[in-house]
Design brief:
The chain has about 200 residues and is α/β, with parallel strands linked by helices. It has a domain of about 130 residues: 2-enoyl-CoA Hydratase, Chain A, domain 1 (Alpha-Beta Complex). Helices cover about 40% and strands about 20% of the residues. Strands 1, 2, 3, 4, 5, 6, 7 and 8 form an 8-stranded mixed beta sheet that branches. α3 links the parallel β5 and β6. It is globular, with a radius of gyration of 18 Å.
């Protein structure tokens, strides 16, 4: 690779853009298992180059996705040696909100929102046995406990309040997120100056 060549990767099917030179990862879509691999590799490369320069995670529009992958990315961000700033540009629902919470600095742009809820199983099969249901139930309990503990770690909220918040699954605006401890500050949109 030439030294003057930009190191930017577009993972169109995943809705992820990695800009190694700008130290940014942008998420604009559902979170799947492969999203975790991309985050892991990008964070590894960025940290190997500098632990002092901040890394920015831009969450544009994400409705969440894989709970386990989101929890893994949260954990990666929490142990990242470099400072990590996450920014919600439009919305971060479910697993995308967990990724947002993993950063050391959390910024919500004016007009954006986050949305929490407990873990759910996509695509229930109506042929489940009692043993299958028990396995799935145990999985959901473990995932919910991870979610509750992540939120409690970042916000200091009591467990009952977190469970109630996840149960409502309502959009949380930037001002509410700051009051709840889910965000650190509100960012403003840059105004566009029109040339006459």
């Amino acid at each position: 690779m030439n030294s003057g060549q930009a190191r930017r990767m577009f993972y169109k099917k995943l809705g992820v853009i990695v800009d190694l030179d700008g130290r940014k990862i942008s998420l604009n879509g559902l979170i799947v298992k492969e999203t975790g691999f991309v985050f892991h590799k990008a964070l590894h490369v960025m940290q190997s180059e500098s632990v002092e320069e901040p890394i920015t995670i831009n969450i544009l529009r994400s409705g969440g996705g894989s709970c386990i992958t989101s929890i893994m990315i949260y954990a990666m961000l929490r142990i990242c040696a470099a400072p990590v700033k996450s920014v919600v540009r439009y919305y971060a629902k479910s697993g995308a909100c967990y990724i947002f919470e993993g950063a050391s600095e959390r910024v919500m742009m004016s007009g954006s929102f986050v949305e929490l809820h407990w873990a759910v199983l996509p695509g229930f099969d109506d042929c489940l046995t009692v043993d299958d249901i028990k396995v799935e139930y145990d999985y959901l309990l473990r995932m919910n406990n991870h979610i509750y503990n992540m939120i409690r770690e970042r916000t200091g909220m009591p467990m009952g309040a977190i469970k109630k918040l996840c149960k409502t699954s309502a959009p949380i605006n930037p001002k509410q997120a700051i009051q709840l401890g889910l965000a650190d500050k509100i960012g403003g949109r840059k105004s566009r100056k029109h040339k006459k």
